[in-house]
Amino acid sequence: MKASLGIAADLRQRIASGELKDGDPLPVESELVGQLGASKSVVREALRILEGEGLLEVRRGLGGGPRVRHPSISDAAQGVGVYLQIGDVPVLDAWTARDRIIGGAVERLAGEQRPPTAAALEDSVEVLGSVIGDFDAYYHQLIEVAERAVQLAGNTTEHVLVVALRHIIAAELDAVTREVVNVSEAVDAERYITSEWRTVVRHVRAGRRVAARRAYDRQADLIARAIERRSPGVTVVDAVASSGSLLGLR
Predict the structure, then answer these.
(1) What is the pLDDT of residue 201?
(2) What's the whole-model pTM score?
(3) How far is the CA of 31 from the CAs of 43, 55, 115, in angstroms?
(4) What's the pLDDT at 250?
(5) N- or C-end of the chain: fewer Cβ atoms within 10 A?
(6) What is the pLDDT of residues 204-244, one digit of tens each?
């Protein structure tokens, strides 16, 4: 129904612009019919479209009705994840894309030479150093450090993409990272990775773009090589199947 698509598009724009905030209730159906000058069936179809997109939550019962729902990064990751599954995309492919975004962000940070930015990244790296020896804490902070670098570099789209990619391959990335750090000298491996991130910070402070990227690449390549060894033929759909969840969240 073209009318329902038009109403859905109008409401979608109002949600995207922030005019309709997360949790805001929409008028009840009878009021919407009067406001929009459309039939009940058209209004219902428009609401179903937005509910299917995750932009509305329709609550039943007393005090219910449609409420605005702002999508989370995991919602975005789910759609991209399904696409990568259908395309039978290798986990290494997703990792490489994520790695390039982070490496590029590190270079830009070094080129900008902003002391507050370098300090913020250093704080995150020091937290990483403080949890050496505690794998669960170390793994999650290692992911946080990389995503923090992208966030500090200032490109919102890249930050969304890198977080979405982490969610998509979380289970496989977790397993591979465990393999990297659970070698016979596990703590040494964690110290090596942390040391390279500290080197990244030093080069960012000094404005050495190439050196900062190389330091980042050294520790990132360690994980990439582990993915190649552990799962040379594993695709995103395989990783999802092994985790039992699209996002592989624990």
Answers:
(1) 97
(2) 0.73
(3) 10, 20, 54
(4) 29
(5) C
(6) 999 999 999 999 999 998 877 777 776 666 676 565 555 44
Closest listed residue to residue 200, CA positions, set 131, 100, 107: 107
The answer for residues whose C-beta is within 8 angstroms of residue 192's C-beta and 6 or more apart is 219, 222
Q: Are strands 56-59 and 65-68 parallel, antiparallel or unpaired?
A: antiparallel
Lookup: tokens for 78: 């789910």
Where are the alpha helices (H) located in the chain, listed in sequence order?
2-16, 29-36, 40-52, 73-86, 91-112, 115-130, 135-153, 156-168, 170-181, 186-206, 209-230, 236-243
pLDDT at position 84: 76
Considering the four listed CATH numbers 3.30.1330.60, 1.20.58.480, 1.20.140.10, 1.20.120.530, the one that applies to the domain covering 74-243 is 1.20.120.530
Q: 155 in helix, strand or coil? A: coil
Three-state SS for 145?
A: helix
CATH level 3 topology of 2-68: Arc Repressor Mutant, subunit A (1.10.10)
Q: What is the pLDDT of residues 126-172, one digit of tens each?
A: 999 999 988 778 888 998 999 999 999 999 999 988 888 887 776 65
Query: Which tokens belong to 25?
Result: 């209730």
| Residues in the chain, total | 250
Amino acid at 227: I
Please say if the pLDDT value at position 182 is more than 80.
Answer: no
